[in-house]
Specification:
Shape: globular
Helix content: over 70%
Mean pLDDT: 86
Number of helices: 14
Largest sheet: none
Structural class: mainly alpha
Distance between the termini: 20 Å
Length: 431
């Protein structure tokens, strides 16, 4: 059951990652190395916005899943409407801040002058499309909570595939450069968002309730916010940590930036896919808690581990042994500094995918069961270790290699914590 539910989620996140992969591919191949560095540099800042959208997704998803399994359909609809309203307000604030301070943020992370203009242009266009990012994430959270992970997958697959064609068209035929890459993503994300919302409202109409449904509830808002804020803080701190690391990387020049950008475009889909499967475990956990079936949570943990490890094995082999050829999707020079940096990153990170995958499955159960304090401890331990070690080791003889080595250390320590916390849950000792 968990496998059937999670596999479409995995497919969805792969196609969602294709947006940024396509942007980097077209920028690197058709515009140049500086354009690739600019897109990758801006991407670290966009992850802050995605963190807020992801938090709205998780808050709504966990609450709707609990209400759905408890058959409280009136409250379920109110929870959806409450999330849509709150997400809209939050999105508007972030758009204003993003458009007003993107230049300051880029300067803060030591963006080189030769990529500053393109980085700022990409980031501003991205900010204009934030409503699409927010409402698509909320819509997918609702679908997942209702047990339907296939519908958003279909929308996203069509949208992200068309984004590749739009990227190439805008850059090659219209000669729009980095702006073309950004506008193509804007348009395609908009289409998938509108379709997803239409189908959400169509699905809600099929759920019959008696009497009128309130469009906002402070009580439900507080419950959603507890989960959402924790997820936002988690993802935001991770994003801030990544930005600090990006600023360290930027100090080594645009070639290292380009190599990191290319490698991280291969690494991010893996970690994000594993995170999404962990989100599926969160919904599974919330549903079983709502139904009073605690022993099934342990079954879900074992099934989740099998699923993520099966995913990690081919990706590890592919990245470790064929990483150089995959990096050619973004880089033109097979022997330059950027290529060597990218290969080194993949060689260091890919063997530890099995470790971080285990953490994310355990995290899914912690989050779905409301053990947010322990979840945050494990997450922040990972982040703090990576940022501190990256800063210290990069200033030694290791140079940039020290930055990449910080990842496995943070992942390993945090995984040990997450699994220990999972084993303290009420599902142990139940039959």
């Amino acid at each position: 059951m968990l496998w059937k539910f999670c596999l479409p989620l995995f497919g969805s996140i792969i196609f969602q990652q294709l947006y940024n992969i396509a942007d980097s591919f077209v920028a690197g191949k058709f515009v140049g190395e500086d354009a690739l560095a600019a897109v990758g540099n801006s991407y670290e800042i966009t992850l802050i916005f995605i963190a807020f959208a992801f938090g709205c997704n998780m808050g709504c998803s966990v609450m709707v899943a609990q209400l759905f399994d408890a058959k409280k359909f009136r409250d379920l609809k109110t929870a959806v409407y409450t999330t849509l309203i709150a997400s809209g307000v939050l999105c508007a604030v972030l758009m204003i801040l993003g458009l007003g301070f993107c230049g300051s943020l880029l300067s803060l992370i030591n963006t080189p002058d030769n990529v500053m203009a393109d980085s700022m242009l990409y980031l501003r266009i991205y900010c204009l499309g934030l409503p699409f990012v927010f409402y698509y994430n909320v819509a997918t959270g609702i679908f997942s909570a209702l047990g339907d992970s296939k519908t958003p997958f279909v929308f996203l697959a069509a949208s992200s595939t068309s984004n590749i064609a739009m990227d190439i068209l805008f850059v090659t035929a219209f000669q729009m450069g980095v702006a073309g890459v950004a506008w193509a993503t804007f348009l395609c994300q908009g289409v998938s968002c509108v379709l997803a919302l239409l189908f959400v409202f169509r699905r809600l109409k099929t759920i019959a309730v008696e009497g009128s449904v309130p469009v906002f509830s402070w009580n439900l808002f507080r419950k959603i916010a507890v989960i959402a804020v924790s997820s936002i803080l988690q993802q935001s701190f991770i994003s801030v940590g990544n930005i600090v690391i990006q600023s360290i990387i930027n100090s080594f020049g645009s070639s290292v930036m380009a190599g990191y950008s290319a490698a991280i475009k291969l690494n991010n889909p893996v970690v994000t896919s594993l995170t999404t499967l962990g989100n599926g475990v969160s919904n599974y956990t919330a549903q079983n808690i709502g139904a009073g079936k605690l022993p099934r949570i342990r079954e879900g943990f074992r099934a989740g581990l099998k699923l993520v490890w099966l995913l990690c094995l081919p990706l590890f082999l592919l990245y470790f042994f064929a990483g150089r050829w995959l990096l050619l999707l973004f880089l033109q020079d097979q022997s330059g500094t950027a290529m060597e940096v990218g290969v080194e990153i993949l060689h260091i990170l890919s063997p530890f995918y099995f470790v971080v995958a285990s953490k994310l499955v355990a995290d899914g159960i912690l989050r779905g069961s409301g053990m947010m304090g322990k979840f945050m401890v494990a997450t922040f331990t990972d982040l703090i270790l990576r940022v501190v070690l990256a800063s210290i080791l990069s200033s030694t003889a290791l140079g940039t290699t020290g930055i990449w080595l910080a990842w496995p250390v943070g992942w390993t320590v945090a995984t040990a914590l997450s699994i220990c916390f999972y084993r303290t849950g009420l599902w142990f000792g139940t039959d």
